[in-house]
Every structure is written in C-alpha cells, then in structure tokens.
Write a structure and sequence with these properties.
Shape: globular
Helix content: 25-40%
Largest sheet: 3 strands, antiparallel
Order of helices and strands: HEEEHH
Oligomer: single chain
Radius of gyration: 16 Å
Number of helices: 3
Number of strands: 3
Number of domains: 1
Strand order of the largest sheet: 1-2-3
Strand content: 5-15%
Distance between the termini: 36 Å
Structural class: alpha+beta
Length: about 120
C-alpha cells in the first residue's frame, strides 16, 4: 500500500507498537535527506504533518515524520484558537544551530512558528 510503513511490534508500557521502534533524527539531517529521498516532502492532511520516504543502503524502506514551520504554525494556531495555555516542541536541540545561512533561516523559522 502506498505510503504505509509498518513498525515492528516493540512493547512499550502496554502499547503493542510505539515510537520505541524508531529513533529521533536531527532536523538538519532531515532537511538534507528529504531532497534526495524517494518521495520528496509528502503531507498528511489528517496529522497536518510532513513526512518523506527513502530506502537505505540495503534496500529497507523507511518513513520519516517531522514538523516544519508550516505544521508547527498550524498547531500553534489551533492552540491559540482554542484558548489553550501554550505549545512546545519535543526537542529544540535537534534544530541546526550551525552558522550556515540556510540552517540559521530554518531554525529561526521553526522558533517563529511557535508564536502565531
């Protein structure tokens, strides 16, 4: 089935499948890898989140889900529209804080997206 990636069943606190089957990838790696991926950036309308697909060097299929400024801004706007008290991101340390111009722009855009 297109765009379906099954996770191995890794029990985690009673759940049959969890993020314990995956791993965190730094945003800088995602931004570099997405352009050479099989799919390019795809968008899931239900999750309001981007993802992409690739095959590793042994031909295994992978799917990477992430947030970008657009998906973060949609979530921040939802929080604001519902009068909720705030929003945060999982790990700001995964952003690219190098002095490269593109990295600085991407990191700044992510932080700005948190304030609708």
């Amino acid at each position: 089935q297109d765009h379906v990636c099954s996770l191995p069943k890794v029990p985690f606190r009673g759940a049959p499948c969890s993020d314990a089957a995956g791993r965190q990838v730094p945003y800088a790696t995602i931004m570099k890898q997405v352009n050479s991926s099989l799919s390019g950036v795809l968008w899931d309308e239900v999750q309001k989140a981007p993802f992409y697909e690739y095959k590793d060097s042994v031909g295994q299929f992978h799917q990477v889900w992430f947030d970008d400024p657009h998906s973060i801004s949609l979530k921040a706007a939802y929080v604001k529209s519902r009068g909720l008290r705030g929003i945060g991101m999982w790990n700001g340390n995964s952003l690219d804080y190098s002095r490269e111009a593109v990295a600085e722009q991407q990191t700044q855009a992510m932080w700005q997206a948190l304030t609708p």
